Amino acid sequence: MPIAMTPSPPPSDRARILFLGDDIKYDPTLYQRLTSQFDIVHPPPADLQRPAFLQHLRDGSWGRFQAIMRPSWHTGGEMGNWDEELIQLLPPGLKVYASAGAGYDWVDVFCLAKHGILYCNGAGASTEAVGDMALWHIISVFRNMISSFLAARSMDSKLFSRAHHDLPATSYNPRGHTLGIVGLGNIGYAIALKAYAAFGMKILYHDIVRKRPEQEDVVQAEFHPDIGSMLRKTDCLLLATPSTLGGRPFLTSELIAQLPRGSRFVNIARGSLVDEDALAEALESGHLAAAGLDVHASEPHVNERLVTMLNVTMTCHTGGGAVETKTGFEQLAMENVERVLNGMEALTPVNGRLIKESRTNGHANGHDMNGERNGAS
Hints:
five-stranded parallel beta sheet, alpha/beta, disordered N terminus, disordered C terminus, elongated
């Protein structure tokens, strides 16, 4: 079926923004400010399906836009992964792509940097919501909340009485236990603050960058450059780190084996970070006492082994799912493109350092040194 052609926008001296996804819902005033400064092209949903989207880029249907914004996480991503196939079709002079969402495993930020395109995420907008969800999972894996929850809702008085009688024997207060966090970025640090203040947990962390001493002091955090040394001291392991390159699992049977027997695990980061079969085996063997998962390896599907276990808390990747998060995503996407187009620094740049390195190696603003766009046909 042929793809319908979208007429090119009329010429204008103003910078142009390609707007992907649903209309602005939470901050129309900020959107009006954008429209007063820039031309905005807002394609219909049918044009965002990958075949149509790629064809429009080839045809230049939307003109030479200088910015892309995707203010809503649940729409605007219909074209799928932003890989070399897609990125090399973007117009020369494109400066910034600002999207909702904290994670960016779906976009090749290295390839964007090679073409001189800054990627900005929604970091910070979801910090409070994800931090709160992490605390819910932490208390759940220590206090057998799912078993108690299901027994109460079963309308079975025997199950209720059994849970009331038996669960305290394997339930523990989080206070005084060690929380080992992999990734102490914005979200990881927010979780550390909450767990330290609310539960009195001991905070250990592993990261490629160490926090400043004054930040560590606030939560009495103990830095472990070696992941193994942290795991051996951890009562509850929590992942708050980006996906690995290539989507390889971080938590494997080898790492799980280094955790003390009876420890717990929580993942609010990315499902692809976990070998779920290895996790299921550790739970079945009793090496791990419980797990809390807001994210899953094959979303929207969950692991068939894990879903049957009463010591596994599961939520539907709703850690960041709050109105405040959606509002923040909108604002950050719009503010990032506004700032970059006006010559100011972005609020949440992801690959700025990579762009500097790429330019040092002879690339600038999506062109090589003889002025031809990299990868363009």
